[in-house]
Amino acid sequence: MRFHGFSRLARGVAVVAMAGLALTACGGGSGSGDSGSAAGATRTVKHAMGETKVPEHPSRIVVLDTDKLDSLYTLGITPVGAALPDEQSGIPKYLGPSFATIKSVGTLQEPDLEAIAALQPDLILGSKFRQEKFYDELSKIAPTVFTEKVGITWKENFLLDAEAVGKKAEGEQKLQAYEAQAKAVGQELGDPAKLKISLIRFRPAEIREYGPDSFAGIVLNDIGVGRPQEQLLEGKADRRFAPISPEQIDQVDGDMIFVSAFGADAAKQQAQVTAGPLWNKLSAVKAGHVQVVDDEVWMTGIGVTAAGKVVDDVKKFLTPLIQK
User: Fold this and answer.
1) Is residue 291 within a helix (H) or strand (E), and if so which, with residue range?
2) Helices first, then strands: H and E counts in the chain
3) At what angle are helices 66-74 and 304-322 packed, to 10 degrees?
4) How far is Cα 30 from Cα 38, in angstroms, rounded to an integer?
């Protein structure tokens, strides 16, 4: 059922009413900090919006960011609903067929409160950075736990997600295993710091070079590989990424260039730019040291499973370089 003619306020009231009925059926609970807490054991979790009582063992979890999809997959949990980057996006394919049937509940910027309430979740995981304005409404549907930032704090976010779902110890073990994997690959590469690895991403309206505070940049740092001076983004307030124009593409050279594209329109721009003369003058391009990688893994995965796959890619594509 849709409320197309309603104002935002009226729509919010309708959604909260639906949520209230669902919570009553499930055992009750009310208030922004305690909503949805069913009769039974609960735990208090501190997070970006305060403290929230969550079920000891939540079983119907809705996630509102792609990193939380990765978190639950890593922890062996399938959520009942997920918000996606845009209306054209599907569940990331690297998460496998068991996640393909998860119900969509809107986008990261505009989660569908009706769809979320209809799933009768007992826990909602989201991000203050993306969904702060929806927190009060969400927390009346079910206990809601928000991480603070996106990308730069991906490890801390994963551990908070693990705590919220009652798998804190397992989360710590999974993160430690990833870090050991990254360190081992760095050692296998010998002196990885001497390899300057460039990372660029095509988006529909811009090209970005990614720095040390991005998700993939942090993974590259965990491995120990070097970065081109330009992509250290020194002196920048935001060292996750910086936009570059097609005319600046000659600045992205390195020993290896990893390239990804976000969506079909971005892939078209990628094809145009990489067919141009500036791109083909790059030493990495001339040497055949360019690799297109999965955007869902390298850019929007932002979790332990995705990080492990990035490490696998780095080992696969850099090992031939050190053997030359």
Assistant:
1) strand 290-292
2) 13, 12
3) 90
4) 10
Q: CA-based Rg of the chain, rounded to a whole angstrom?
A: 21
Residue 293: closest CA among 243, 220, 226: 220
Name residue, tokens 């145009």.
Answer: 272
Question: What gap in Å lies between CA 147 and CA 127, rounded to an integer?
Answer: 5
Angle formed by the axes of helices 304-322 and 168-188, nearest 10°: 10
List pLDDT tens digits, range 181-228. 999 999 999 999 999 999 999 999 899 999 999 999 999 999 999 999
pLDDT digits (tens, 9 = 90+) for 140-186: 999 999 999 988 999 999 999 999 999 999 999 999 999 999 999 99
Determine the residue type at 159: L
CB atoms < 10 A from the CB of 323, how many? 6
pLDDT confidence of residue 164: 98
Helix, strand, coil distribution of the chain in percent, nearest 5: 45, 20, 35
Q: Which residues is 139 bridged to in the sheet?
A: none
Q: Look at residues 55, 54, 85 and name the one whose alpha carbon lies nearest to residue 69.
A: 85
Cα–Cα separations (whole angstroms), residue 36 to 47, 55, 128, 138, 202? 17, 9, 20, 10, 41
- Tokens 């393909």 identify what position? 100
Tokens at residue 58, please?
């939540």
The whole-angstrom separation of Cα 27 and Cα 261 is 45
Mean pLDDT of 225-245: 95
pLDDT-derived band at 89 (thresholds 50, 70, 90) equals confident
Alpha-carbon distance 166 to 53, whole Å? 12
SS3 state at 199:
strand
* Nearest of 111, 101, 119 to residue 60 by alpha carbon: 119
Cα–Cα distance between 252 and 255 in angstroms, integer? 10
Distance CA 298, CA 11 (A): 37
